[in-house]
Amino acid sequence: MSDYKAQQLAKLEATRHKRAAAVRRFFDPGLDEQSRLAAARQSGTFVDAEVPLALAIVDDPTATPLLRASALNGLFNRLSSDEALVARFIDLLNASSEPRELRLVALATLQASRFGSSAMAGLRPKYLASLRKLIDQDDDDLRRHALEYLMLEKDDYAEQRLLDGLNDPAKAFLPPEIAIQLLANDLHADAVPTLRAIARNPPSAAARKEALRNLATDAESAPLLAETARDANEHPEIRHVSAVALHQIDPGLARQIMRELIEADATDHELKAALLNSLAHLDATPRDGALTAKLVELADATDSEDLKSMIALFTSKP
Amino acid sequence: MTLGPHTTEAEFQAWVDECRRNNDAESLAAILPETTPLFRARGTRQLTRMRGYVLSSFATAGLPASAVAFVLEELENGMMPYTVAAAARALRGAPTRTAEHAPFLLRALRNISLHDDAITFEQYRTTSDDAGTTRGVHEILATIAWMGPAARSIAPDLRRLLEREDAPYDRATREKLAATVECIDVPAPAAKTCCKKSLAVVEQPTSPQRLAEIADVEATDQDGVRVTLGEHWGGHVAIVTFFYTRCENPNKCSRTVSRLAALQERVAGLGLEHVRIAALTYDPAYDTPALMKTYGVHRRFHFAANSRFLRVEGRSALERVRAFFELGVSYAEGIVSQHRIELSVLGTDGRITARFSRLQWDEDQVLAEVGRALSG
Questions:
Q1: B171 → closest Cβ in A83, A159, A191
Q2: What is the reported pTM?
Q3: Under a CB-based contact definition with an 8 Å cutoff, are residues B138 and B173 in contact?
Q4: Quick one: average pLDDT of B237-265?
Q5: From the list A128, A129, A189, which residue is nearest B333 (CB)?
Q6: B45 at the A interface (CB within 8 A)?
Q7: What is the DSSP letter of B121?
Q8: Cβ–Cβ of B168/A126 closer than 8 Å?
Q9: Stretch B82-106: mean pLDDT
Q10: With a CB-CB cutoff of 8 Å, which residues 47-106 of chain B face chain A?
Q11: Which of A80, A154, A156, A225 should one mutate to test binding to chain B, selecting the residue with the greatest count of B CBs within 10 A?
Q12: B333 has a chain A CB within 8 A of its CB
């Protein structure tokens, strides 16, 4: 056997011993909780005879929530093929009487096992129904995660609840900008009137920015986006977001506006740098000499290092 | 009650419930076409809820012949567990069990198995309440079991699914699947199975409309070249289909363009280079030439002078094209909210000689119609 192979085998053996010791410490009821939780972090996922021991801790109402959650977390790999265990995790998620630490771990592990778990695939309808129930529960973390995961599935119920919250702040679970970001997982015409309303009459600057960004799906919002991008009274970030969104709908008009803004003396230099960056990466139109000459002048005149480096990047491309 | 764009969802639900109580299936079927005024300016989400609720009603109100194509379309191409399950339920309202429908149920099973969901038909909207909850796959299996021996042709496929350890089914679903196979895998009394037969809807339009009515409509192709529809198609037999690049259903636009590319190869193989092939976008405000080109290239469509993707210029021009081809598409906020699959064959005189809609077209049938147009 080569030295290299022997060294690697020795390392593997040492790791195995280290893990076995950590597992023993985790399952040792005589140790204090901090030691057991520290051991859990070195235990990886439980196998064979460790599984019933971990399940016993999960089911032990006298164990602390963190210890139970650690035991639950260590069962993650079993979710790939153990249908009964997946069902048990879902039941834990549904049980409002269980500690939130336990339910959060159940949620995170179930969500992580969505890919590659045949057992989870079969129980998907039950899992989705559980997520919908979480929206109406009082725990903000569980609710926020549930909304996020449901929107990744383009869920009609979650979408409706988010829209309800945007249209009536009394029904909102989340800040409007976060709700819009979640809706952006599946933007349909149903959301467009709400986004337009927020863009015109925003509850916050962040919400307006998100609304404008996502109106990139709405061809009829091109005039609003063009007007906002050109408006010197708008915040540079809002102008940039509007110009980029417009590029999705009407690349020609967006290119023209971006160029106007880059060439205008009054435009904020950080905005010019951001617009050049967008043009460099979004726009395949060949560079023209007039713009390049203007940019060379601008590079000499500006103190902004960001703008100088963006000009260098932009002019270096064919 | 007159249904229209301003009908609220609550009013719509009440109307459907009334139709259900009166077993008024014909009224329900009459609103299914995409161009029904009720659907105007409604988003995809709302339309999904509405269509699913109507389709599921046929299970009790009875499935009229006029609704069958809509049901089969959903089974063949739908990807949303709610509407697919609704279509499966609808078949159970059919007066007879039709062997040709079985492959559509198998297709539906394949379409939604990996992303099945908990759904309810007891109330109009999805809620977080478990009452009355079913699953898409369970509804499909219930319909296959209802078909009994008429679905025998798909029993071998279902058995193979059952044998696959990685099939995305839990124990309860596997048990239902096994029971379903037992139900259908018995000799049919009168073996009238004919599952090779295409159910594709081929219309021979009798409308006197000619291409001249839209010949002046200006369009831009995938390379940004401007052309009128008359210049592109005039005096030629043409195959025209429709798509849009942000269609999310892989069984619709993406597949349409891939299948058009396959059709293009067969047309070229027959030496019919003079036949014009075009795909028009439903979404010209969004589909730039660059987007159309990328979409086509990635689906192996070969662009050439006789084969182009086109976006018509302006909303009124789009309306004229929509009227000429009688397109099954609806919009909300300028965004396509629903559409069917559609392909038309134009004759040298500019008349539509055949139209394939809703179900996947049959390549041989399309080529036969092209041949007919060339000789006629």
A1: A83
A2: 0.88
A3: yes
A4: 97
A5: A189
A6: yes
A7: S
A8: no
A9: 97
A10: 48-49, 82
A11: A156
A12: yes
Summarised one tens digit per residue, pLDDT across range A192-230 is 999 999 999 999 999 999 999 999 988 889 999 999 999
Q: What is the ipTM of this complex?
A: 0.86
Residues A104 and A142: beta-carbon distance below 8 Å: yes
- For residue A20, the distance in angstroms to the closest alpha carbon of chain B comes to 32
In this structure, what token pair is assigned to residue B199? 């159910």
Q: Which residues pair with B310 in a beta bridge?
A: B221, B280
List of E strands, A154-204: none
Are the CB atoms for B232 and B371 separated by under 8 Å? no
Is residue B239 within 8 A of residue B370, CB to CB? The reply is yes
- Predicted confidence at residue B195, as pLDDT, reads 47
For CA atoms B232, B236, B240, B245, the dihedral sign is negative
CA dist A289 and B228 (Å) reads 34
Using an 8 Å Cβ cutoff, are A255 and A220 in contact? no
Structure tokens at A287: 């560079």
Nearest CA in chain B to A284: B290
- Picking from A247, A258, A187, A251, the residue whose alpha carbon sits closest to that of residue B334 is A187
Structure confidence by residue, pLDDT tens digits, B201-224? 677 776 667 888 999 999 999 999
- The CB density around residue B77, as the number of other CB atoms within 10 Å, is 23
Q: What is the dihedral of CA A257, A262, A265, A266, to 10 degrees?
A: 60
Give the separation between CA B72 and CA B108, rounded to whole angstroms: 9
What is residue A209's predicted lDDT score, i.e. its pLDDT?
Answer: 96
Asked if the Cβ–Cβ distance from B126 to A132 is below 8 Å, we say yes
* Residue B185 structure tokens: 């895998």
